From TrEMBL:
<dbReference type="InterPro" id="IPR013783">
    <property type="entry name" value="Ig-like_fold"/>
</dbReference>
<feature type="domain" description="Beta-mannosidase-like galactose-binding">
    <location>
        <begin position="117"/>
        <end position="189"/>
    </location>
</feature>
<dbReference type="Pfam" id="PF22666">
    <property type="entry name" value="Glyco_hydro_2_N2"/>
</dbReference>
<dbReference type="InterPro" id="IPR017853">
    <property type="entry name" value="GH"/>
</dbReference>
<comment type="similarity">
    <text>Belongs to the glycosyl hydrolase 2 family.</text>
</comment>
<dbReference type="Pfam" id="PF00703">
    <property type="entry name" value="Glyco_hydro_2"/>
</dbReference>
<dbReference type="InterPro" id="IPR036156">
    <property type="entry name" value="Beta-gal/glucu_dom_sf"/>
</dbReference>
<dbReference type="InterPro" id="IPR006102">
    <property type="entry name" value="Ig-like_GH2"/>
</dbReference>
<dbReference type="Pfam" id="PF02836">
    <property type="entry name" value="Glyco_hydro_2_C"/>
</dbReference>
<keyword id="KW-0378">Hydrolase</keyword>
<dbReference type="GO" id="GO:0004553">
    <property type="term" value="F:hydrolase activity, hydrolyzing O-glycosyl compounds"/>
</dbReference>
<feature type="domain" description="Glycoside hydrolase family 2 immunoglobulin-like beta-sandwich">
    <location>
        <begin position="230"/>
        <end position="321"/>
    </location>
</feature>
<feature type="signal peptide">
    <location>
        <begin position="1"/>
        <end position="18"/>
    </location>
</feature>
<dbReference type="InterPro" id="IPR051913">
    <property type="entry name" value="GH2_Domain-Containing"/>
</dbReference>
<dbReference type="InterPro" id="IPR006103">
    <property type="entry name" value="Glyco_hydro_2_cat"/>
</dbReference>
<protein>
    <submittedName>
        <fullName>Glycoside hydrolase family 2 protein</fullName>
    </submittedName>
</protein>
<keyword id="KW-0732">Signal</keyword>
C-alpha cells in the first residue's frame, strides 16, 4: 500500500503541530517577503502566529490552533476546477495563515488574487472522540467567500469577509490519522460588476483606498464542544445590575429538547460570586445582580461569565453599563450610565504595513489602543472594518468606547457623482440584500461587547443612495430591532436623510460639530438629533522614506493631504488648533462627540497620530492630555444629567434658528 509522503513524514513528527515548521512535510518552504514597509513586530511573528484563543466571548478550554504554514495555490475559479479540489496534492507555494494573501507576512504578497486554494493537514486529539462531544472547525474571518473541505468532503461554505463561522466536522474527521483540510476562497474585491462590503480595499489602491486583503486573515482553530453545544451568547448587562442573556444552542443532534443552563458570574476585580443561577436556553433570560461595579472608560470593570449546558462549558465576560440618550439643557445628548459623556477619539482603520487587515501580533494590535488611551481619548471610531474579537476585548478591558462602522460597499450608486463611480458599478437589489444580511451579521457578532456604543450604517455616500430616504429609515429600524440597547448613527458624513440618533457631518481640517453654520453635504444642522463630528483633522506631516509605504504611486499622492505640516512642532500646533476650535463648539453649540482623523498613517496617507510603521508617535503627549481633558471638562460644564433627572431624558429640544438663537448671538459677539 502506498501512502503519500506527507502521511509518513507527518506520523514521524508525532504530536507536534505541523504548523510549527517552515513547511508542511514535503510542501514548499515559507519565506517572509520584504514588503514596502515593516514594523518592529514583523520579525517576531515567526511561524506560530496569533497563538491566543481568538473568541473571548465564547471560549472553550479544549482547543487547537491551526495557524501556521499551509500550502497555497492560485485558482481560476472555473466550475471544473471547483468540482475537483486538489485533494492529496501538494500545492505550489507556502502561506503563513492567518495573514492576507497580499501581505508580506503571508509569504505570498500577490495581487489580483481572486480565487485561491489553501491546504493543510491536522490531527485531532483522540480524547475528543466521545459520543458526548463534537469537533468544531472555526474560522475567525476569511475574505470573501469560502468553501471548506475536510478529508475530501464539503464541510461548509461562508460568505462575508469579516465574520467568524464554525463548522461541525465531527463526522468528517478521523482520530487515527492525519486529516486534510482544503479551503477555497473567492474574493472579487471591487472587480467590475461586483459590489460587496469591503471597506477600503481596492484592487488598484488610490490615496484613501488601500491594498486589498484576500483569503484567511484571522485565526483558524479546532475545538471540542459538548454534544449539544452553545453557538452564541447574547449578553446585555446594564448599570442597574440587570443581565439579559440568551444562550443559543446547536440543538441536540436530532433531539429537539434544548435543556437548561447553569450560569456563574463574578467580578474580575472583587472576590466572590455575583450570580449563580439556571435558565432555559434559546430564549432571553433576565437575571439581576446587586450593586454592580459599572463599566465606563474611567473604570472598565468587567465580570467573568461561565455558562454550562449539558456537557458543554464556555467562558465569557460582560460589563454593566447603560447606553441611552437624553436631553440636557435643551440639547439631545448620548448618555452612558445616565450621564452625558463626551465621546472623543480617532478614526481607527486597523491597517498594518506587514499584515494589512491582520495585525502582526496581539501586542501590536493593542499598542495602537494604548497610544490612544495614553493621551486620554475615550473612544475609537472603528472605520468600515470589523476587527478580531480580541480587539474588542482589549477595548472592553482598557475602557475605550467603540463607534462601530459597517464595512462599506465601494460604490456611489446612481445617480450620484458619475465621475466618482468606482468601475461604474451600481448596487443591484441582490447586492443591497447581501449588504443588509452582513449588516445584521455584524450586529449579531459584536453586540455583546460592552464597549460598543454606536452602530454606523453608512460612511459618507459609500453604497448609500443619495436620494432614497426610505432605505436609510428601513436599515435604521432593522438595526434597532436587532439591538435596541445602542444608539444608531445612520449616516456618518454626507447624505443625511433624517434617520437615526445623530446628525453627523465630516469637515476637514477644522470641525463644524453641532454648529448651525455649516451643513455642506449633510444639509443644515438638525438640532433635534445628537450633534456629532464623525471626521475632522487629517493634518499631515510627511516623514522620511524609512517610515513611508514605499510605493511610488502612494508617495506621489501625499500631496493630496488636506494640509501638510513641515515639522512635528508645526503638526502639533495645527492639530491643537483644531482641538481648540472643537472645544469652542462644545462650549457654545450642540457638539456631543468627535472623531479625529486618524490613529495611524495608512499607505499614501501621512496624517496619523502614529506613522504607518508605528515607529514615530507624532503627539506631544503631555499637551494632548491637557487638551483632551479640557474637552471633557468643557462638555461637563454643559451639564451631565438629563433635564428631569437621570431616568428622565424628557426635555424640550432647542431648535436653533440661525441669527436669532441666543448662543449664536453670543458666538457672534465673541468673534468680535
Ligand atoms: C496563477 O497565476 C499565474 C500568474 O499570475 C497565472 O499565469 C496562472 O494562470 C494562474 N493560475 C490559475 C489557475 O488561475
Ligand atoms: C488521500 O489519500 C489518502 C491515503 O491514500 C486516502 O485515504 C484518502 O481517501 C485520499 N483523499 C481523497 C479525498 O481522495
Ligand atoms: C458551496 O460553495 C461551492 C462553491 O464554492 C458550491 O459549489 C456549493 O454548491 C456550495 N454549497 C452550498 C451548500 O452552498
Ligand atoms: C481510521 O478509522 C476510520 C474509522 O474512523 C477507518 O475507516 C479507517 O480505515 C482508519 N484508518 C486507518 C489508517 O487506520
Ligand atoms: C433581552 O434581550 C432580547 C434580545 O436578545 C430582547 O428581545 C428583550 O427585549 C430583552 N429584554 C429586556 C427586558 O430588555
Ligand atoms: C433528549 O434530551 C433530553 C434532555 O437532555 C434527554 O433526557 C433525552 O434522553 C434525549 N433523547 C434522546 C433520544 O437522546
Ligand atoms: C476571568 O477570565 C479570564 C479569561 O478566562 C481569566 O484570565 C481571569 O483570570 C478571570 N478572572 C477571574 C477573577 O476569575
Ligand atoms: C514626502 O516625503 C517623501 C520622502 O520621504 C518624498 O519622496 C515626497 O516627495 C514627499 N511628499 C511631499 C508632498 O512632501
Ligand atoms: C501631486 O504630485 C503628483 C506627482 O508628483 C502630481 O502629478 C500632482 O499634480 C500633484 N497634485 C497636487 C494636488 O499637487
Amino acid at each position: 500500500m502506498h501512502f503519500p509522503l506527507w502521511i509518513t513524514a507527518l506520523s514521524l513528527l508525532g504530536a507536534a503541530t505541523a504548523s510549527s515548521f517552515k513547511r508542511q512535510a514535503d510542501g514548499p518552504e515559507y519565506q517572509l517577503k520584504t514588503g514596502p514597509l515593516d514594523t518592529d513586530w514583523t520579525k517576531q511573528v515567526g511561524t506560530n502566529p496569533w497563538p491566543e484563543y481568538p473568541r473571548p466571548q465564547l471560549a472553550r478550554s479544549e482547543w487547537k490552533n491551526l495557524n501556521g504554514v499551509w500550502q497555497y495555490q492560485n485558482a481560476s475559479g472555473g466550475a471544473a476546477e471547483l468540482a475537483t479540489p486538489p485533494f492529496n496534492k501538494t500545492l505550489s507555494e507556502a502561506v503563513l495563515v492567518p495573514f492576507c494573501l497580499e501581505s508580506a507576512l503571508s509569504g505570498i504578497m500577490g495581487s489580483n488574487l481572486i480565487h485561491s486554494w489553501y491546504r493543510t493537514l491536522f490531527d485531532v486529539p483522540s480524547s475528543w472522540f466521545d459520543s458526548e462531544k463534537r469537533v468544531l472547525l472555526n474560522f475567525g474571518a476569511v475574505d470573501y467567500q469560502t468553501s471548506v473541505f475536510v478529508n475530501g468532503k464539503l464541510a461548509g461554505n461562508n460568505t462575508g469577509g469579516y465574520f467568524h463561522f464554525a463548522l461541525d466536522v465531527t463526522d468528517l474527521v478521523n482520530t487515527n490519522g492525519t486529516n486534510e483540510l482544503i479551503v477555497y476562497t473567492y474574493d472579487p474585491t471591487n472587480t467590475d460588476g461586483t459590489s460587496i462590503p469591503l471597506g477600503k480595499q481596492r484592487l488598484n489602491p488610490d490615496h484613501i483606498n488601500y491594498t486589498p486583503c484576500s483569503g484567511i486573515w484571522q485565526t483558524v482553530w479546532l475545538e471540542s464542544a459538548g454534544r449539544q453545544y452553545i453557538t452564541q451568547l447574547d449578553i446585555d448587562a446594564k448599570a442597574d445590575g440587570s443581565l439579559n442573556i440568551t444562550v443559543h444552542t446547536s440543538g441536540d443532534q436530532g433531539n429537539s429538547s434544548v435543556g437548561s443552563f447553569d450560569i456563574t458570574v463574578h467580578s474580575q476585580g472583587a472576590e466572590g460570586v455575583a450570580l449563580q443561577e439556571t435558565g432555559q436556553a434559546n430564549a432571553p433570560t433576565l437575571f439581576k445582580i446587586d450593586s454592580p461595579q459599572v463599566w465606563s472608560p474611567d473604570s472598565p470593570n468587567l465580570y467573568n461569565v461561565t455558562v454550562k449546558l449539558g456537557s458543554d462549558t464556555v467562558t465569557s465576560y460582560t460589563g454593566f453599563r447603560t447606553l441611552s440618550k437624553g436631553v440636557i439643557d435643551s440639547l439631545p445628548r448620548p448618555l452612558l450610565n445616565g450621564e452625558f459623556v463626551f465621546q472623543f477619539g480617532p478614526l481607527d482603520q486597523g491597517y498594518w504595513p506587514d499584515g494589512l487587515h491582520s495585525p502582526p501580533t496581539y501586542e501590536a494590535m493593542v499598542s495602537d489602543l494604548k497610544a490612544v488611551k495614553e493621551v486620554g481619548f475615550n473612544m475609537v471610531r472603528k472605520h468600515i472594518k470589523i476587527e478580531p474579537g480580541l480587539f474588542y476585548r482589549a477595548c472592553d478591558e482598557l475602557g475605550i468606547m467603540v463607534v462601530q462602522d459597517m464595512p462599506a460597499m465601494p460604490t456611489y450608486p446612481y445617480p450620484y457623482r458619475p465621475a466618482c463611480t468606482d468601475g461604474a458599478v451600481h448596487v443591484t437589489p441582490e447586492q443591497q440584500q447581501e449588504f443588509e444580511r452582513e449588516l445584521a451579521r455584524m450586529v449579531e457578532q459584536l453586540k455583546s461587547h460592552p464597549s460598543i456604543t454606536t452602530w454606523v450604517i453608512y460612511n459618507e455616500g459609500w453604497g448609500q443612495s443619495r436620494y432614497d430616504r426610505t432605505t436609510d429609515v428601513r436599515l435604521t429600524s432593522l438595526v434597532r430591532s436587532l439591538d435596541p440597547t445602542r444608539l444608531i448613527n445612520t449616516v456618518s458624513g454626507w447624505h443625511d436623510h433624517g434617520a437615526g440618533d445623530f446628525h453627523d457631518n465630516h469637515h476637514y481640517s477644522f470641525p463644524q460639530c453641532g454648529t448651525p453654520f455649516w451643513g455642506g453635504d449633510s444639509g443644515p444642522f438638525d438640532a433635534s438629533r445628537i450633534g456629532f463630528q464623525g471626521e475632522f483633522g487629517g493634518v499631515g506631516n510627511n516623514v522620511s522614506i524609512e517610515h513611508l509605504w514605499n510605493v511610488p504611486h502612494a508617495i506621489s499622492q501625499i500631496n493630496q493631504t488636506y494640509e501638510l505640516a513641515e515639522t512635528l512642532e508645526g503638526w502639533n500646533f495645527r492639530v491643537r488648533a483644531t482641538f481648540a476650535d472643537l472645544r469652542s463648539q462644545v462650549e457654545a453649540w450642540s457638539c456631543s462627540g468627535a472623531v479625529y482623523t486618524q490613529t495611524t498613517d495608512v499607505e499614501g496617507e501621512v496624517n496619523g497620530l502614529l506613522t504607518y510603521d508605528r515607529r514615530v508617535n507624532r503627539m506631544d503627549v503631555e499637551r494632548w492630555k491637557g487638551d483632551i481633558e479640557g474637552m471633557y471638562e468643557a462638555a461637563r460644564n454643559r451639564g451631565t444629567v438629563p433635564d428631569g433627572g437621570e431616568e428622565g431624558g424628557e426635555g424640550q429640544v432647542r431648535r436653533y434658528v440661525v441669527g436669532v438663537d441666543e448662543p449664536f448671538k453670543a458666538e457672534m459677539m465673541m468673534m468680535g
